[in-house]
Amino acid sequence: MAYENEQIMKAIKALLEATLPGRLDTVEAYWQSEGDALTLPDPVTYHEGYKQTVLELPSSSFPFVSVLVPNRTPTREGAEWGFQESTITAGVHAFVVEADEETVSKMAHRYAEALVLTFQSQQAIAGYRQMNYEPQVSIGVTARHARSGAEGDYFDPAKTDFIRILEVQIELKGG
Q1: Helices 5-33 and 101-120 meet at what angle, rounded to 10?
Q2: Which pLDDT tens digit goes with each residue over 7-61?
């Protein structure tokens, strides 16, 4: 296949659906043993690509995990006509919601921990090898979120919760 980003996206989504709940349980058990228990719910939604309206979804749609594989860069070394490897950038965005800011912050970090464990357990995905053992992790700021979705009084605690996004990014090489 000449272009495999969509296949890689589907493979990452399938990997997450199969293994992320178990990794969340592992992280949850670790923190419980440390005296800082927090239930890490399994993702409610797995999504291929970016969803522009994710912040407008009701709280019952979260945790929300989306897989993006937007970039492919051909490598220069070892290239010959008919064969050339590429570096593929893949990212997983996870959105978590919780009633208070402290808990949503912990949840975001622990989701990142589970995603890192998931990727570190795989040397290759869809025939492409991972470039780094340590994936790049970015955690966004906490924001208010209307529990019902797109509309709500953001100053009424009964109608709002807090949302946080995190991204785990990996680079794959192959072709």
Answers
A1: 120
A2: 999 999 999 999 999 999 999 999 999 999 999 999 999 999 999 999 999 999 9
Structure tokens at 41: 């719910």
157 — pLDDT class (breaks 50, 70, 90): confident
Question: Read out DSSP for 64-115?
Answer: EEEEEEEEEEE--TT-BTTB--EEEEEEEEEEEEESSHHHHHHHHHHHHHHH
Tokens of 155: 């100053």
Peptide bond into 21 cis (omega under 30): no
For domain 5-174, the CATH architecture is 2-Layer Sandwich (3.30)
- Pairing relationship of beta strands 136-139 and 45-48 according to DSSP bridges: unpaired
